[in-house]
Structures are given as C-alpha cells and as structure tokens.
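Aim 2 progress update. The chain analyzed this quarter is reproduced below.
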Amino acid sequence: MLKFSPNFPGESLVIGYPQIIRAAPHDDVILPCHLDPPFNVEGLTVEWSKPDLKPDPSDRLSRVEYVHLYRDRREVTDMKLPSYVSRTSLFTDDLKHGNISLKISNVTVADTGRYRCFIPKLQSRVKESVVQLVVDLDFAKTSSPETPLHPGHNETGDPKDSTDDTADFTPGARSSLTILIPVMFSVILLTSVIGGLGGYFYKQQHEEQKQNLKLEGDLLDQQESGLLSGASCQDKDLT
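Predicted structure tokens:
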C-alpha cells in the first residue's frame, strides 16, 4: 500500500479503496474514492476512466473516452464509453464532502479492470487514485451486493437517495442465518446428548458403589458371625 507524507495545510489527497473489489455478474458495485481530509468538489471536474484501455486506433483525434465524466456540476455523456451508458452515477449529494465514489450497475465480466478517479484541477500533490474491480462468474455472494464506500463501513447511500426498509437484510445476512441456525441446533443437540450420557454414567457409577457397599457390609457381617462363633466355642471348652 502506498504511504503518503503528511498533508500540507489545507491540502486534500485523493484516496481510493486499496483492496480488489470482487463481484458477480449483474451486481451493482461501488468503486470507493474520496478526499482526505474532506473537500467540496461540487465545482470541480471529476473523471473516472480505465487507464489500461487503449484509444480507438480509428479515432484520428485520439479522444479520451470516460467511464464517467462530471463537469460543470453535471454528467457529460457525449465522451462516455458506450458500454457504460446509463450504468454509472456519482453520489452527487456527497460531492461537497469529498466523496467521489462511482457506482456501476449491472456489472459484466467485461467491466473487470483498473479504474482511475482523477480531479485534474485539485490543488494537491495527489489528484488521482486507482481502484481495481474483478467480476467473476464463480464469485459467491457472501456480503452486500454493493461495496462499502470506505473500508470498515457496511452501508452506503444510493445516488438516487432511494430507501428500502429491507436493505439491511442482504444475501450475506440470509447466508449467515442459514449457517447459524443449524450450528445452534447442533450445539443444543450435542449438549443434550452429553448431558444424557453423563446422567447415565453417573447412575451406573452410583449403582456400582451401592453394590460394593452392600458386598462390604455382607463381608463384615460374615466376619462378625465367625468371630462370635469362635468365641462361643472357646467358652464351651473352658466350662
């Protein structure tokens, strides 16, 4: 992971998510990128592009095409890659807080690659960052279909500010419950079995102890009877 020297006073750095983001086809994903410390970028240009994508050789002007381009406080669509039309959006209400994360809807395997977030007119030594996305057919959904905006956060807003009361009940939550319930049942069953076996062995041990005590008592009685008989015989001999 890259380490930056301390910021100059008033300087904000563009920080992207440091880990690979993995998703399944048709997922909606968020490529996290923000300014630290937060800085209002509503009036600045924000560019999202794929740096590994080579320009179209048939384009004599070698124009750059973007995954998403925000300029003059709106999205510019005439310079956008055709495959991303109507599939990308920024969290425009959060731009004033320095959140320049990009949401991509209905991802495909072709979306796999590196994404560059860049603020060309930002007065900073670090104006850009790269986020890597991998869309895998075999990816198992074990968490929310949307990647968190920042590491450690489990929830994100939606660019359209839509709300859903069931949003927290994600496929990951259902998967966790599916695993947790059988485990709890197994623990309860195992505890019952162990308790039953313990009771059985305790009862058996108690019965054996009773039998041993009875045998010891019988032996003592026999010994006492023998001693009494011997004493009686000696008395008769003396008389």
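The chain has two domains: 13-163, 169-239. Residues 1-5, 149-157, 160-179 have pLDDT under 50 and may be disordered. These observations will guide the mutagenesis experiments scheduled for the next reporting period.
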